[in-house]
Write a structure and sequence with these properties.
Layout lengths: L3 E4 L5 E4 L2 E8 L3 E9 L16 E4 L2 E14 L2 E10 H8 L1 E5 L4 E3 L1 H8 L6 E4 L8 E3 L3 E4 H12 L2 E5 L2 E5 L5 E7 L4 E9 L6 E5 L12 E5 L3 H4 L7 E2 L8 H11 L5 E8 L15 E6 L4 E13 L7 E5 L6 H6 L4 H7 E2 L4 E2 L6
Helix pairs in contact: 2-3
C-alpha cells in the first residue's frame, strides 16, 4: 500500500495510517484524490493535522485538501472523508493576473502563456506541432491563471498537463501504444455507454465587434454532416474578439472543433494486471487497442481517465473514449438505416466523411 502524509497549516508533517485512497486522473479535470481516514490509536498523532487547505502527499505528489466530512464511528472516534485537488490546479486557480496584453496585437501561444502564468511561479513547455497559429487579441489577461489557460486551450483546441511546477501544452498529450486490452484475458466487468444527449449539429461564430456600427469583423458557421440524420440542433454561438476579418478560416476551424457533433462512446472496465504482457504502463491519454467481443469492438481507443486505489487488491478502472476506427456497427445500433449511414461513411474505405463522428 502506498504511503500517505499529511501537512497542516503550521507545516507539521506526519504519516497517516488506516486509510483508503482513490486517485482520479482525467484529461479534462487533472488529478484529484478521495481519501477516507479512520481515527485509531496508530494515527492519534497525525489525524488532528487534517485541515482544509492543508496538504496530503500521495505517490510523490501534493494534493490540497478542499473538502472534509467527519462522521463518528465508535465512542469518540471519527472517520473523515476528504477530497483533495492537485497542487498545481489549486495554485493556478488562485493566482490572479492583473496585467493584460494591451491594445490589439498578434500573439502566439508562448506570448499568451507568458501572461497566463505571470506571478504564479510556474514555467511552461510547448510541444509546437499543430500549435503554430497566432491570434490578434486585445487585453488578454486580467483573470485567474487557470481560467486563462482554459482560454488558450480552447483557442488552440489543445491540451495541457501540469507536472510539478511546469505546464506542458500540446495539441494532444498522448502516446500511441501497441498495448491490447482484451476481454477474458486482462479485463473484467466491461461496460459500454452510448450517449447522444449532447449532440449539436449547427454552430455560428462571431469575431471582433465594431462598437460604432454593431457589425462583426468576421462571422462564420458550421453544419455537421450529422444534421442530415438528426436535423439542425443549435449549439451555443462563439463570440471571440481575437478573430478579425483575416481570420475567417481560423474561426471556421474553431467552430468545427468546438461543435459537439460526436456520438460519445464511453467504455469502462477493470484492468487485471498481467505481468507477462508487460502492460503496467497504461496512462491517461494513451491510445490502446481494445478488443471487447461482447460489444463487437475491435479498435484503438483513448484512455480519458484512470482511477487507481491504495488497496493493492483493487484493480485500476479505465474509461475510454474517442473511438478512432470502425463506427459502422455503432451507428447501426443507434437505429439508422443503411441510406443514412452511407451519407456519413465512405463505404469503399469504411471511414467517416468529414468529421461526423470521432
Amino acid at each position: 500500500m502506498s504511503s500517505l502524509l499529511v501537512k497542516n497549516l503550521a507545516n507539521q508533517v506526519e504519516a497517516l495510517t488506516d486509510f483508503n485512497v482513490t486517485k482520479k486522473d482525467e484529461i479534462e479535470n487533472g488529478r484529484s484524490i478521495d481519501v477516507t481516514v479512520w481515527e485509531t490509536d496508530r494515527n492519534a498523532h497525525s489525524f488532528p493535522l487534517i485541515q482544509n487547505e492543508g496538504s496530503l502527499f500521495y505517490e510523490d505528489e501534493e494534493f490540497v485538501i478542499r473538502k472534509t466530512r467527519y462522521v463518528p464511528i465508535s465512542g469518540k472516534r471519527l472517520k473523515v472523508d476528504i477530497t483533495a485537488l492537485q497542487r498545481s490546479f489549486s495554485d493556478l486557480g488562485e493566482n490572479y493576473v492583473y496585467e493584460t496584453s494591451g491594445k490589439k496585437k498578434t500573439l502566439y501561444i508562448e506570448d499568451m502563456l507568458d501572461i497566463a502564468l505571470k506571478g504564479s511561479g510556474y514555467s511552461y513547455e510547448v510541444l509546437p506541432e499543430g500549435l503554430g497559429d497566432s491570434f490578434e487579441v486585445e487585453d488578454f489577461g486580467n483573470g485567474y491563471s487557470l481560467g486563462l489557460l482554459s482560454d488558450i486551450k480552447e483557442k488552440y483546441s489543445a491540451e495541457y498537463e501540469c507536472i510539478g511546477k511546469k505546464v506542458y501544452f500540446a495539441k494532444e498529450i498522448a502516446r500511441d501504444t501497441d498495448y491490447i486490452i482484451r476481454d477474458r484475458v486482462n479485463v473484467k466487468d466491461p461496460s459500454q455507454e452510448i450517449d447522444t444527449s449532447s449532440i449539436k449539429t449547427y454552430i455560428k461564430g462571431f469575431g471582433k465587434k465594431d462598437e460604432k456600427t454593431g457589425k462583426y469583423a468576421v462571422e462564420a458557421e458550421y453544419t455537421s454532416p450529422l444534421a442530415s440524420v438528426y436535423g439542425i440542433k443549435h449549439a451555443n454561438p462563439v463570440f471571440d474578439d481575437s478573430y478579425t476579418a483575416k481570420d475567417e478560416g481560423k474561426l471556421e476551424k474553431r467552430l468545427e472543433k468546438e461543435l459537439t457533433d460526436k456520438i460519445e462512446i464511453s467504455i469502462s472496465l477493470t484492468y487485471i494486471e498481467v505481468k507477462q504482457l508487460n502492460m503496467q504502463d497504461i496512462r491517461k491519454g494513451d491510445y490502446v487497442w481494445c478488443v471487447l467481443e461482447p460489444f463487437d469492438l475491435k479498435t484503438k481507443l483513448r484512455v480519458v481517465s484512470v482511477e487507481t486505489y491504495s488497496d493493492p487488491k483493487k484493480s485500476p478502472v479505465f474509461t475510454f473514449g474517442k473511438v478512432r476506427a470502425n463506427i459502422k456497427k455503432t451507428t447501426a445500433k443507434l437505429g439508422r438505416g443503411q441510406s443514412s449511414v452511407s451519407k456519413l461513411i465512405d463505404v469503399s474505405t469504411g471511414k467517416v466523411k468529414g468529421s461526423a463522428i470521432s
